[in-house]
Amino acid sequence: MTTQLRFDDRVAIITGGGGGLGRSYARLLASRGAHVVVNDIDRKDDNGLTPAGAVAAEITGQGGSAIAHDGSIAEPSAGPAVVRTALEAFGRVDIVVSNAGIVRDRSFAKMSDEEIGEVLDVHLHGAIGLTRAAWGAMRERQYGRVVLTTSVAGLWGNRGQANYASAKAGLVGLGRTLAIEGAKYGILVNLISPGAATGMTAALLPEHLHERMSPEHVAPMVAYLCHESCSLTGEILFAAAGRYARDLIIETAGYENNAATVEDIADHLADIMDTTSWSVPSQAVQLPSD
Ligand SMILES: NC(=O)c1ccc[n+]([C@@H]2O[C@H](COP(=O)([O-])OP(=O)(O)OC[C@H]3O[C@@H](n4cnc5c(N)ncnc54)[C@H](O)[C@@H]3O)[C@@H](O)[C@H]2O)c1
């Protein structure tokens, strides 16, 4: 059996770490020795604490090491600012978990420009900005673990979430490309597709499932992807309610005909769609075999 996987001296950035899933990730990594930079929005509660400040205080109160960065990751200046916070406080960046998120659900016909823009800005542009800001520091050290957050909505589609699904599917393209580019620098990039009862979802889930769908059941998968012993890259891992699985984008063996007409496509649709034989493309360029 694997001995305890620890993160001593590793420096982890977690966006949206002030609540829900991000808080669980921050607490788990810190409990195993990581220095954690908790980012979340700059909004104070009745005690004068920001979400990130409260989680950082919770971690340090339990003997862990954490610092808060208060500010929306959707701001173009936020990625560099969070990385600067990590470098100034702890001297390096080893782990980046882009987790911050919002929803602005509405049918596609009625969705406003703002509802599309806000969601893309937090999920997709926020993750791009932060990862890009950390990339140089990780490349220099020839080490990095990046976890981006996708969703069943982005992978499979969901009514009323055209904005959110676009952002979450965009993160898959980002993650798979960064996995290819990061490989020679020791930077591994994976995606988590989580399911949990949180501020975002609890009202949509029956109450009897809340405990079974605690964010604590997702955190071990994310922590594993952040560990130095993890060699996966470019993968999409599902974690919800105590079930852990690999999500795949596959390509069927299909139908080959270098002179195919529209009618040939119609006649061979069953072969094209047949999933008896399939592969998992590892990158965009797959030249035809002889
Ligand atoms: N809960 C689920 O079942 C589920 C399913 C699929 C994907 N996700 C994804 O997991 C991630 C975490 O979601 P959650 O369920 O914990 O939601 P949550 O609402 O409980 O937590 C999200 C956190 O992100 C923070 N946040 C929002 N906008 C931010 C911004 N601009 N900058 C910094 N922080 C910001 C919030 O303040 C909050 O603390 C999100 O990316 C979400 O889309 C969640």
TrEMBL record:
InterPro entries associated with the record: KR_dom, NAD(P)-bd_dom_sf, Peroxisomal_Beta-Oxidation, Sc_DH/Rdtase_CS, SDR_fam
Keywords in alphabetical order: Oxidoreductase
The keyword Oxidoreductase is annotated on this UniProt entry: yes
Ketoreductase domain segment(s): 10-195
Signal peptide positions (record): none
Record has Secreted as a keyword: no
PROSITE patterns: ADH_SHORT
A Pfam match: adh_short
Segments forming a coiled coil: none
Family: Belongs to the short-chain dehydrogenases/reductases (SDR) family.
Name under which the protein is recorded: SDR family NAD(P)-dependent oxidoreductase
Source taxonomy: Bacteria, Bacillati, Actinomycetota, Actinomycetes, Micromonosporales
